[in-house]
Each structure stands twice: as C-alpha cells, then as structure tokens.
Amino acid sequence: MGWLRFRWSRAVADGAKSYRITRDRAGRWHVAFAVAPEPIAAPGTGAAVGVDRGVVVSAALSTGELLNVPALRDGEKARLLRLQRKLARAQRGSNRRRKVKTAIARLKARETDRRKDWVEKTSTRLAREFDVIAVEDLKISNMTRSAKGTLEAPGRGVRQKAGLNRGILANGWGQLVTRLEQKAPGRVVKVDPRFTSQRCSACGIVDREARESQAVFRCRSCGFACNADVNAALNIRFAAGHAVTARGGPPLGGPENREPQHEYLLVR
Hints:
alpha/beta, 6 helices, 11 strands, globular, disordered C terminus
C-alpha cells in the first residue's frame, strides 16, 4: 500500500509492541496499538453499588441514578428509515444499492461508536467511585438466542424476541460488565439474578404483582415504592454484600447493607 496519511486520535502509550489495521463496515480504516492498561485503583471508601441492566433504562444504579446509552437522534432515525426504504427498492447488484448500504453502515457505525464511548466512560466512573460493583450474573448469549426454531418446530413470539434481542445488544449489557472486570479486577461481584426485580428492597417480600409497570415498584406488604429498576439495583447491592460477607469479608457500605432481620416470603 505504500505510505499512508493517518490522524492520531490519542498518544500511543509506552510498551506498545504490536498493532492491527482494520476496516469497519462503514469503510473507515483504523490502526490500533496493543497496550495492556493498568487497572483503576479503588477509592478505598468501602462504597458498593448495584447495577441493574435493562432495555428501557440501560443501567440503573442503587444510588438512584438512571443511565442510558445515547442512541441515534430523531433526525438520524428518520434518515435511517428513509435509507432502509430505498434499500428495499434498489436493484440487487446496482451502484445505487451499494451507496445506500454504505450510508446505512455509516449511521450504524455512529450508533456503535456512541455505545462504546458510553461503556468506556461509565465503566471508568464506576471503577473510580466504588470499591465493589455488583451486577447480575446473566447469560447474555443464551438470552439473545434466536427464537425462530425449525420448520418442524417453529418458535413462538419470534418478532417480539428479536426486538428484545436488539434491545439487549443495543444497551451494551455484556460490554459494560467486560470493561468493568478489566478496569476493576476482583471488585466486580456477580449475584444470582432470581427475584431481584420482584423482591422489595425494604422488607424483603417477594411479590410478582408489586411491579405495577416497567418503571413503578410498589410493595403491597410494607408500602415501599420507588423506581422498579432502582429497587432491583438495591437488591443486587444487598446480595453482593451477603456474598462478600460469606467469603469472610466485612459487610459492605454500612449497616444498611447487612442481612435484614426478616424471613423471605414468596407471595403467589
């Protein structure tokens, strides 16, 4: 290829021993240098946070904060829809179809870049502010498996399942936890995801009817009410505190994170 001009997006860290040249689906070329970054130091305050990942809210924190991956703007979504309609009308193998596909790929790449940027900034912030980061132990590859089935045994709710799969991938569930484990090794606790969205974080009662809507959780036993995703994040943080204590460590964050004095009841 000979000599090529390229733009430095950042300075190359010391210790880079190799590099990789790639071309994405939008036609952009990248040069990536392989450098193993140092882990982010824990703040040492004993603070713990629970992170509940969702489709409507990308990440809800037990502190009450709701975080969302920046998606395409309304104008970009309208342009993407127009391009997809053009693509459906374009003749296969034509130059027009090739140009439309490239334009769609550029919009998709813009969305992917924003998601990656959000994951990097969010994971860095959590690693700097909290000693322990609790997340649900989700099998994302199994959750995003297609529901089409086979000709002999076709699946049900295929369109709805495909929409859920797109929502999970668009919110970067796996990317966020992967980067957290790389930036805060040994400080990410994965807890059992069962009943985290149905259990009241105030009294511990499990009631499937307590979640009135996607955003509202109201306990029918003690009357506690808050955002449903924040309630799940609180349960995730409590479960992480119990896991650390069971391994011989001190309770996390203070008395509010210790084992509550009550029985867990399942209300059907």
